[in-house]
Specification:
The protein is built from five helices and two strands. By secondary structure, it is mainly alpha-helical. InterPro entries: ATL_DNA_repair, MethylDNA_cys_MeTrfase_DNA-bd, MethylDNA_cys_MeTrfase_DNAb, WH-like_DNA-bd_sf.
Length: 108
């Protein structure tokens, strides 16, 4: 992946660890990356996912409210159905049932 930094690779590795049918947030990915590197924010995780996230299960990394950017919602819905990801009315991920925390369970 041209232009990917070590930090970006770490973010993608964490995103790739999210189990099928589960989801995590940009903020939790940032927290896990900070625990290893001392840097990172939810916004920077979002930027990495926007640039390089197509190589991982991008639909499993969502906003704190369980949603994705509007342009990704329809594509993500297919993945959520096939993985039986719990969702709320309106289509966002139900994080009370689907949340995976990469800090607590880094190698699920």
């Amino acid at each position: 992946m041209a232009g990917v930094t070590d930090w970006s690779e770490l973010v993608l590795d964490i995103a790739d660890d999210v189990p099928p049918g589960r989801a995590t947030t940009y903020g939790l990915v940032a927290e896990a990356a900070r625990a290893r590197t001392g840097r990172g924010s939810a916004r920077s995780v979002g930027a990495v996912m926007s640039r390089e996230g197509s190589s991982v299960a991008w639909w499993r990394v969502v906003r704190a409210d369980g949603s994705l950017p509007e342009q990704l919602t329809a594509r993500a819905a297919e993945h959520y159905r096939s993985e039986a990801t719990p969702r709320r009315p309106g289509g966002s991920v139900d994080l009370t049932r689907a949340l995976w925390d990469p800090v607590e369970d880094p190698h699920a």
